[in-house]
Amino acid sequence: MCKTTNSSPAGKVAVIDVGGGQRGIYGAGIFDTCLDQHVRFDMTYGISAGSANVTSYLAGQRGRNHTYYGEYCLRKEYKSMKVLAKKHAVIDLHYVYATLSNSDGEYPLDFPAMMANPAPCTVIATDAATGYPHYFTKDDFSQDHYDVIIASCSVPVFTRPAPVDGRLYFDGAISNPIPLQKAFDDGADAVVLILTRPKHFFRKTSSDRFLSKLLRRHYPEAAKVFSRRAITYNRDLRKALALEKQGKVLIVAPDNIAGMKTLGTDPEAGERLYQKGLADGEAIAAFVDRWHHQRGEQNETE
Question: Which of 243, 192, 215, 206 is nearest to 126 (CA)?
Fold first, then answer.
């Protein structure tokens, strides 16, 4: 069972967005509601597409990720046969997280605002050589250099591993798909966990094992971890469900994925999932306020 590091509640609330490719539009809706309701998280964690959601949230850019999922990710510059031929990848992550997101891009990330937000930001990727999770922080970002997001989103087989400071990285969901323990180890007392599949959806190992075989030749350690991803995800989901009963975790998940696939290109399905996120995000403010209230009470007694 996950344990918090503090002996008594201090009221720190973390948010974890596990991503999920185009299903990440659900998390975009959740964070837009959080911005509307001025919800303030004390710590943020993003995996894969969730890292993009988290950074836009920290920057206070409501609607930014909705535009990316609903419009930009449907463009041929992002996904097309031309991308496959030129980049040797199914999708071009640099188009999204560099060309469009840089200060001279079509919809830049407000990097100064993100950095000014006091909440720490942890972006999770997987070291391609070791298979271990790597936890990037704000110190690993700089203006117009968002390679850590690309690293966190680099799904094996579909994209090449992403270089950051001389090392190669894959999607963070391979090694730590639900970093619940990491959040508690960092000092969180409660966690809002954003999933992009239904709450009681447990992964199957078949697809991961197949893809891991394709990865084994060049990245054997990452392949080993990839083959166990479903086991890791399901184990940590069970922990989250148990902690939710104790009131320490709030799981926010869609009742269904509205027809949206991981690499889907159906804008109507995406919009349905986004609207679910907007609605489901309404539950978060009360949960966060309750824990922050505990912190206020503790401060008054000290």
Answer: 215
CA distances from 279 to 15, 252, 271, 272 (A): 17, 10, 12, 11
- Pair 51, 29: CB distance under 8 Å: no
Query: Tokens in use for 128?
Result: 């391609």
Show Cβ contacts of residue 12 under 8 Å, excluding neighbours closer than 6 positions: 42, 43, 187, 188, 189, 190, 291, 295
Tokens matching residue 197: 């599949």
Q: For 226, how many CA atoms within 13 A lie in the half-sphere containing its CB?
A: 28
pLDDT truncated to tens, each residue of the chain (302 aa)?
A: 444 444 444 799 999 999 999 999 999 999 999 999 999 999 999 999 999 999 999 999 999 999 999 999 999 999 999 999 988 899 999 999 999 999 999 999 999 999 999 999 999 999 999 999 999 999 999 999 999 999 999 999 899 999 999 999 999 999 999 999 999 999 999 999 999 999 999 999 887 888 888 899 999 999 999 999 999 999 999 999 999 999 999 999 999 998 888 888 889 999 999 999 999 999 999 999 999 987 665 555 55
- The CA-CA-CA angle for residues 78, 81, 84, to 5°, reads 75
